[in-house]
């Protein structure tokens, strides 16, 4: 009797599983989509850049990656990008601050998903316009729907680059940097660059911020350099080094 009940239960379970499998819809959409690749979180949508670190170059490139949704194709497929207004400041001007996405040479060379490809790296070409010496601009980029591709996931719709030709506060200058090196300031930032020969940008800060020994070394080096600089300034009849608002340079709580 137990065997009969057991076998009946197995048959019922198999029947339910088969029924569920039959009810599952097959992916047969012919509509291809494009998503911007985010590595970790929504913060990956934002990229900061400054020409000030890179000598006399006239333009530079930030690369963004897009992934396709849908079936790969056996032929090249053109796609399009568009600029949308940014809530983060002055909007970049095509042809002035960056190479326009409508530029024929740019479109034919870069805005193409090759046959059988499911991912594509696209350059955003920034131009070092003189206006960037006194302002920061924002370029928010989205996929523009066409006959080949439309936008994909709602939470992977855009990338945004903010760029300038001035020193700006790195995104990585957060609570830990405030504790170790004090509040951010442009004069302090330039002083740190001059003393260490490092950019003190996001990549550099992330490379050491969890290394207490190296942080201690940097702190000591900067403190000594500031004491020497202020001694020179006093000897010349100048005040101690400070920000444009008059706040003295300091090195935080640590």
Could you give the count of β-strands?
11
Mean pLDDT: 88
State the fourth-level CATH superfamily of the largest domain.
CalX-beta domain
CATH class of the largest domain: Mainly Beta
Major sheet: size, sense and barrel closure? Answer: 5 strands, mixed
H/E element sequence: HEEEEEEHEEEEEHHHH
- Proper CATH architecture of the largest domain: Sandwich
Poorly predicted ranges: 1-7, 20-27
Helical coverage, percent range: 25-40%
Q: Estimate the global geometry from the Cα principal axes.
A: elongated
Q: How does the helix and strand content classify structurally?
A: alpha/beta
Reported by name, the CATH topology of the largest domain is Immunoglobulin-like
Nutshell version of this structure?
This protein has helices at 2-23, 104-110, 175-181, 186-196, 202-208, 212-235; strands at residues 32-36, 46-50, 59-69, 77-78, 80-84, 90-91, 112-113, 119-127, 136-144, 149-151, 158-164.
Structure description:
This protein has 254 residues and is of the alpha/beta class. The protein folds into two domains: 32-164, Immunoglobulin-like (Sandwich); 175-235, no CATH class. The chain is 31% helix and 24% strand. The chain is built from six helices and eleven strands. Strands 2, 5, 6, 9 and 11 form a five-stranded mixed beta sheet that branches. Strands 8-3-1-10 form a four-stranded mixed beta sheet, with no helix packed on it. Strands 4-7 form a two-stranded antiparallel sheet. Helix 4 (186-196) packs across helix 6. The protein is elongated. Residues 1-7 and 20-27 have low confidence and may be disordered.
């Amino acid at each position: 009797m137990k065997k009969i009940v057991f076998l009946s239960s197995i048959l019922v379970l198999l029947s339910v599983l088969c029924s569920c499998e039959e009810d599952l819809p097959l992916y047969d959409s012919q509509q291809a989509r494009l998503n911007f690749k985010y590595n970790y979180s929504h913060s990956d949508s934002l990229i900061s850049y400054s020409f000030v670190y890179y000598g006399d170059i006239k333009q530079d490139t930030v690369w963004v990656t897009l992934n396709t949704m849908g079936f790969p194709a056996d032929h090249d497929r053109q796609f399009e990008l568009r600029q949308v207004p940014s809530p983060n400041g002055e909007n970049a001007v095509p042809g002035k601050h960056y190479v326009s996405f409508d530029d024929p040479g740019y479109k034919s060379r870069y805005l193409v998903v090759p046959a059988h490809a499911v991912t594509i790296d696209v350059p955003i070409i920034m131009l070092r316009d003189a206006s960037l010496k006194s302002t920061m601009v924002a370029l928010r980029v989205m996929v523009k729907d066409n006959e080949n591709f439309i936008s994909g996931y709602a939470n992977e719709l855009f990338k945004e680059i903010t760029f300038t030709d001035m020193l700006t506060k790195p995104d990585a200058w957060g609570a830990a940097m405030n504790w170790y090196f004090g509040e951010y300031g442009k004069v302090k930032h330039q002083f740190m660059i001059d003393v260490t020969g490092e950019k003190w940008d996001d990549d550099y800060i992330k490379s050491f911020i969890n290394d207490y020994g190296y942080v201690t070394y940097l702190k000591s080096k900067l403190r000594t350099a500031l004491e020497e600089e202020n001694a020179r300034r006093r000897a010349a009849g100048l005040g101690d080094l400070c920000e444009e608002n008059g706040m003295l340079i300091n090195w935080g709580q640590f």
